[in-house]
Amino acid sequence: MSIEIRNVTRSFGSFVAVNDVSLTVPSGELVALLGPSGSGKTSLLRIIAGLERPDRGQVFFEGEDATVRDPRLRRVGFVFQHYALFRHMSVFENVAFGLRVRPRSARPSKAEIQERVMGLLKLVQLDWLAGRLPSELSGGQRQRVALARALAVQPRVLLLDEPFGSLDAQVRQELRRWLRRLHDEIRVTSVFVTHDQEEALEVADRVVVMNQGRVEQVGSPQEVFDRPATSFVMGFLGHVNIFHGRVEAGRALLGPLAVDWPEHAAAEPRAAAAYVRPHELDVARAAAEGNGGIWATVRHVNAAGAVVKLELEAADGGPLRVDLSPERHEALGPRVGERLYVQPRRLRLFLDEAPGPAR
Amino acid sequence: MRESAPPLPPPVEHRIRYVREDPAWVRWSLTLAAMAVVAVLIVVPVVHVFAGALKDGFGVYWSNLFGDPDTRHSIRLTLTVVPVALAANVLFGVAAAWAIARFRFPGRTLLTALIDLPFSVSPVVAGLMFVLIFGLQGYLGPFLRAHDVKILFATPGLILATAFVTFPFVARELIPVMEAIGDEEETAAVSLGASGWQMFRRVTVPNIKWGLLYGIILCNARAMGEFGAVYVVSGHIAGQTDTMPLRVEKLFQEYNLPGAFAVASVLTLLALLTLVIKAGLERRVPSERAHVD
C-alpha cells in the first residue's frame, strides 16, 4: 500500500507544525521521518493516521483519498511512543482488541482470534507472556506488544511514533535491528518518527529529514548522509565543523581556507560556509599543500571507542573536532597542548542563511 | 568502590533534634486530646443513637420503623430519590469530567469552578433557588401548573434538590483520575477501529472504575443524609414528601423520641456501611493506581 501526501499543512494557532509537505512512500518501504523536536514529524504521522486533520492537503492510500475517511476505516496500525497499552487488559486481550471491536459480521470467530493473536505474539516472541498485564512487562516487551496489537488488524500501513524513544540504549539497539528484520519479513508499508539520526540511518530504507514543518531532503540513508541537500541536513546527521566566510567569482574564502566553487561565479560576494565532518579533517605536524589549512591546539584526546576523538582550538578560538582512526592516532601520537595543522580532505559548501545553528 | 571511599566523618546526630522526637508527654497529651474529642463528639452520640433506638427492645424498634405508615413511606421515598439522583449525577459527572479532562474549550475554567458551586452554597439556599424557579411565584411555576406538572412539594423536586447538592462528588473524583490516565489509550482504541461507545465501555470505564465507585459512594452517603435543600422543597407533607432525615426531624418535634432514634439509627447504619466500603476501596485503589505507569 503506497502512501502519497499532497501539500499537507497543519497549524496550531500561529505555529505552523506542517508546512505544505508533499511526500510519497512506495509500497512495502520502511521510511523514517527524522527531525528535531518541533519539526512537525509527529504531526505529519498523526495526519497520515487520521488522528489529526490537516488544514489543507490530502493523504492518499494507493491512490485513494484517505483524508475523508474515518480513522477507524483507514486500516492503519499505530504504535504510540509510550505504548498506550490498555493497562487493565492482559497482553492477549490487548492484541485481540482490534479484532474484538469489529462489527459482528466482520469479527473473526473465537478460535480464529485465539490463533491470530497467538501467531502475532509468537512473531514478536512474547507468546509466553500472553496472560500478563502490561505493568508486569519491561519497556522493550511493552513496545513489542504494542506492535503486535497494531499488526492484529492487518493494517495496510504501519505507523510508529518514536518507537524506541523511551527505551534504554542497549534495548533500543537490539529492538531496532529486530524491527528491521521484522519488516523484511512482513513487508508492510511503514513510517516511523525519530529524532535519532543513527536510528533513522540504520533502520530505514529511506529517510525524510524534516525541519520547521518542511521536508529538507528525502533519500536513502547513504544519500542523505553523503550528499546532504542543505546545511541543516548536514548539521543534523552528525557532528560538523563549520568554517564561515564568503564566496565571490567562483572562489570560496573561508578564513584560512580557500577553495574553488565554480557554481557561484557571480562577482558580488555572498556569505557562505564550509561544513566538514570530523573524519574528513586531516591533522599533521607540518603545513601541507592544498586548499589551505588551519593551525590549532589540541585540547582533549578521547581514545575510547572505534575512533579517536580529538578536540582542538583553532587560532581564532573556535573549537574543532577531528576523528582519527586508531592507527593514524598511534602513528601521529598527538599530545594535549600541541599545535597541529588541520586540513580538510573534503568539504561541503553552503550559501549561508545565518551563521551556524548546526550541532 | 566502597573500599577506596574515605572514612565518613563521625556522626553528629546528637546535635540534631528530629521533629519526630518530641517529648513523650507532648505526643501522649496530643494523642489523648484527639481521642477525647473524637469520643465526645462522635463515638458517644453514635452509640447513643443506637442505645436510644433499642431502649425498649428490638420488637418496639421494629414496629417504630415499619409499624408507622409515614415512617415506612419515608424509607421508601429515600430509597427512590437517592438512586435516581445518583444515576443522574453519575451521568452528569462522567460527562462533565470527560469534557474538562479531554477537551480545551472557552469557559473550561469557569465550568470547573461552577461544578464546585453546590459545595459552597448553603443547601437551604439551594432549596430556595428551586422554589424561586418552580414555585407558583417563580419563573416556571405558572407554566408547570398550566400543564399539570408537579415538581415542587413532590418527588421530582426532592430528586432535583438532592442531585444539585451532591453534584460535585462524581465529577470531582473523576477529573483528576482522567487527567492522570491521559487520552493515549483512548486514541489507541480508536486507531484500532473501536467506535466511541466501544472505546468508552472497554477502555475508559475500566480505567476510571475505582474513582467512579468512590465518587458514587460519597455521593450516595451525602444524598441519603441531605436535609436542608430537601426541607425547603418538600413542603413537609407527611406520608408524601418526607424523606428519612425529614422524618427524623418530624418525629423528634412530635416528642416521639424512640421513633426518631429508630429512623436515625438506620441512617447512621447506612453511613457506617459507606465508611467501611470507602475504607476498603481506599486500601484497594493505591495498588490499582500503581499500574498507571
3D structure, described in words:
Chain A has 359 residues and is α+β, with helices and mostly antiparallel strands. Helices cover 25% and strands 33% of the residues of chain A. Chain A is built from 9 helices and 20 strands. Chain A has a 6-stranded mixed beta sheet with strand order 6-7-8-3-9-10, with helices on both faces. In chain A, strand 16 (294-302) and strand 17 form a beta hairpin. Chain A is elongated, with a radius of gyration of 25 Å. The two termini of chain A are 36 Å apart. Chain B is mostly helical and 293 residues long. Chain B is 74% helix and 0% strand. Chain B contains 14 helices and no strands. The longest helix of chain B is centred in the first third of the chain and has 34 residues, at 69-102. Chain B is globular, with a radius of gyration of 26 Å. Chain A binds chain B through residues 49, 51, 71-73, 76-78, 80, 82, 84-89, 97-98, 101-102, 133-135, 149-150, 152-153, and chain B through 184-185, 187-195, 198, 202-203, 206-207, 290-293.
State the CATH superfamily name of the largest domain in chain B.
MetI-like
User: How would you classify the helix and strand content of chain B by structural class?
Assistant: mainly alpha
Let me know the average pLDDT of chain A. Answer: 87
CATH topology (level 3) name of the largest domain in chain B: MetI-like fold
Total E-strand runs of chain B: 0
**Largest beta sheet: strand ordering of chain A:** 6-7-8-3-9-10
Unreliable spans of chain A: 355-359
The assigned CATH architecture of the largest domain in chain B is Orthogonal Bundle
Main β-sheet of chain B, in a few words?
A: none
- Indicate the mean pLDDT of chain B: 85
Rounded to an integer in angstroms, the radius of gyration calculated over CA atoms of chain B is 26 Å
- CATH top level class name of the largest domain in chain B: Mainly Alpha
- Helical coverage of chain A, percent range: 25-40%
N-to-C SSE string of chain A, H for helix and E for strand: EEEHEEEHHHEHEHEEHHEEEEEEEEHEE
How far apart, in Å, are the first and last alpha carbons of chain B? 33 Å
Radius of gyration of chain A: 25 Å
Tell me the overall shape of chain B.
Answer: globular
Helix content of chain B: over 70%
* Whole-number total of structural domains of chain B: 2
